[in-house]
Design goal:
about 15% strand; H-NOX domain; alpha+beta; 2 domains
Length: about 180
């Protein structure tokens, strides 16, 4: 998993909780990297799982809630750091349709060794939208947070339903 995910998680914990909480997490979890992350490095995703689990234990916040919050945080970071992915995008459905075909193509140019999740999308005949998330890492709640942030960004009256699958999750976005 690319280091930018780790550095942004640490940044979010520092902002939402405190720098002391970051130190506590890094001191409490055995990490093969030693907890020294760079945005361009590559790290075992189990380290993020361990950090999120420890944060959950220390704050009493459920892991899915933390991962969704982290997804919303990442969305804001991506929008700031990579505005070209968002320029001219009129709505959530259009943005989500671009994840695999455009955004991940560009990510692979920057990080050829990145192991990215797979997203397939389709507009349903009834006006709803389906996005299938496939990843061995099972960060579907993080994906949920990213999707939710997109809905908020475009101020759209959309509800999100997530169904877990052995491969990841299926998201149905319904216009309210």
């Amino acid at each position: 998993m690319k280091g930018v995910v780790f550095t942004e998680f640490i940044e979010m914990v520092e902002e939402v909780y405190s720098p002391e909480m970051v130190d506590t997490l890094l001191d409490s979890v055995t990490l093969s990297s030693g907890g020294a992350y760079t945005s361009v490095g590559t790290y075992d995703h189990h380290e993020l799982v361990a950090l999120v689990s420890e944060l959950s234990k220390r704050t009493g916040t459920e892991i899915p809630i933390l991962l969704r919050a982290f997804g919303r945080h990442l969305y804001k970071i991506f929008e700031t750091k990579y505005p070209k992915f968002f320029d001219g995008v009129p709505d959530t459905f259009t943005l989500l349709e671009r994840v695999d075909g455009r955004i991940h193509v560009e990510v692979r140019k920057l990080y050829p060794d990145a192991e990215l999740p797979k997203f397939t999308t389709r507009r349903l005949p009834n006006g709803d939208f389906e996005m299938v998330y496939t990843s061995a890492r099972h960060f579907e709640d993080l994906a949920y947070g990213l999707i939710d942030a997109s809905v908020q960004r475009f101020s759209e009256p959309i509800s999100i339903e997530m169904t877990s699958t052995p491969e990841g999750a299926v998201f149905i976005l319904k216009r309210n």
